[in-house]
Amino acid sequence: MTMKPLLAASTAVMLAGPVLAEPQAEVLHWWTSGGEARSVAVLQEQFAAEGGSWTDMPVAGGGGDAAMTALRARVLSGNAPTAVQLKGPAIQEWYEETGLADIGPVAEENGWEAVLPARIAEHMQCEGQWCAAPVNVHRVNWIWGNKQILDEHGIAMPTTWEEFNAAAETLKAAGVTPLAHGGQSWQDATVFETVVLGLGGPEFYQQALVDLDPQALNSDTMRQVFDQMRVIRGYVDDNFSGRDWNLATAMVMNGEAAFQIMGDWAKGEFLAADKKPGVDFVCAQTPGGGFLYNVDSFAFFNVDGDDRQQGQALLARLIMGEDFQKTFNLNKGSIPARTDVALDEFDDCARQSAEAMNAGAENGSLLPSYAHGMALRGAPAGAITDVVTAHFNSDMTSDEAVEQLANAVASAM
């Protein structure tokens, strides 16, 4: 080839500019119910609007157990997805096992540290580097009520467990199922941790379900928790075994039950069915104080290819953008992880949640949910849940449950 054609080719490349790869994202998640699917669609739309190509990998199954099985298979085959819905200590576990991508440049450029509660920001970092991005904050310790049923029976939302029990007895006597519940281990654990917080308070919760203090696990307070769990067991219907959480929410929605104890993803189901807060359903924190959080987030695995790496950077920026945080959480029922997002368009339940989160960050009552993978690594959390579920589904006494709980945790550590 002569010099003239070479110069012409070089000039053409310079004029055209660099060839940019199209951002690619293969996203593994477990958002498959109505409110959840609407929420993840928001991220897909924003990603596409920025020129990205999204491959959806939804894996059904409450709590994400099936999704984690699918993830492990992909990682072991050397083909990790671009981004994965992960949360809590699982992020650090995967970092230690396989390494995760460093998204620090995106976090620093967009000032994440200044707009996230410190305790939540810690979950998004791996040995000081940003490796995940939070999409929201769910409050776990909520109780939801069917307003028509409660009004008909003159029942206010309970502020103590004694009030809850009294309301449940009234409803039961009237032939109404007091509590919609799904007999799955993680749902049992959800109710359990709200009782631990409500009866023991934030300091006891921290000692028992975060620090795993043997004295707290083997205390009179823990016996009272199991006593209350036995009472609650009498307020669910006979067909609760194996029921998905969103079907339990539908029971409240349809007037088949009065209450549900569930995180505010349940509100996403109410909203997806065009139910109005304060009109069709009501919300309150479960009896007691504190704020149990469950943060949905995406972790970014090490991937090859400019297109996939650009996809990760774009996803991280969009996830923590004010617009996405607002739109996503309006659909999901949760609140923005960013503390600077205006809440004018959010309902009263969400505003209550944001106020409680900010207060909890100040007074030390902002606490990670053990039941939803925010507080503990796998083995101790599983040991606790096994005992809770065994107790809930048998005639095990509270004394036996406390003894088994302390022994199971000790064996798992």
Compact summary:
The protein contains 19 helices and 14 strands. It has helices at residues 3-16, 34-49, 65-76, 89-98, 104-109, 112-115, 118-123, 147-152, 161-173, 185-210, 214-217, 220-233, 245-253, 265-272, 306-319, 322-332, 348-363, 378-392, 398-412; strands at residues 24-29, 53-58, 83-86, 125-126, 129-130, 132-134, 138-139, 142-146, 177-179, 257-261, 281-285, 291-294, 297-300, 366-368.
Descriptive overview:
The structure is a single chain. With 413 residues, the protein is α/β, with parallel strands linked by helices. The strands form four sheets. It has a five-stranded mixed beta sheet. Strands 9-10-8-11 form a four-stranded mixed beta sheet. Strand 4 and strand 5 form a beta hairpin. The N and C termini lie far apart (70 Å).
